[in-house]
Amino acid sequence: MQRITVLTLLILSLLASSLLEIPALAAVGENLSGQMSPDLVGQINQTNQTVNAKEESLWLQMRTSWLENIFWTRMVLVSIIQGCDNRASVQNRLMRNYQDMETALSPYLGNDTANKYGDMIEKNTQLTINLATAAGNKDQAALQSANKSLFENADSIASFENTTAAKLPIADRLAMWHNYLNLTKNETTELANNDYNASIDTFDLLEQQTNMMADSLTNGIIQNSPSGFE
Q1: Residues 221, 165: contact at Cβ < 8 Å?
Q2: What phi, psi does 96 have (nearest 5°)?
Q3: With 203 labelled, which of 9, 16, 29, 89 sits at a CA distance of 20 to 30 A?
Q4: Predicted structure pTM score
Q5: Cα–Cα distance for residue pair 64/103, rounded to 1 Å
């Protein structure tokens, strides 16, 4: 139980530090390029984009949702693989994440589109739980099956993102999702093999990857409907 408590504190600390990379709310039209973290600066500068209050709100919400996703996913992986008695609780909290994404996206995509997206994220989450269960049971057949289903669902998500925000190139979204899934599989395997140092290194890469995915999706939505952010 103490191990889980320490992990929880570490996760909350990482979440706080990551969100602090995003600047404080700026005046409408103020260019934040000089203040923002490198991945945000790159996307802002590519389009000479300025950030107003509505836009920054979406940046923050999407980053928070994605970071919480990987943090709670890691807790679920540890809980399942190590057979902890908090498994049901952390799984329920992880499954709540897709609802947070729906809530964040509804004002910009509409309820129906946001709910469809949330359903796909929910399926991704459940398949990740299946992956962890298979890894914990050392069931290679189930592991391969879960991994295959994860990539198929990710391809559907990337296509949906491209359809919803046409300025998000399908090839880029596919590459992002595939890298995210490969990192998640690596993290799962490393935890199952008690290779904790490697799993921490992989988690650091996942944090960078999900920040990039969140920023890319946010930027695509803003560019797709600029009038909605005036």
Answers
A1: yes
A2: -70, -20
A3: 89
A4: 0.78
A5: 12
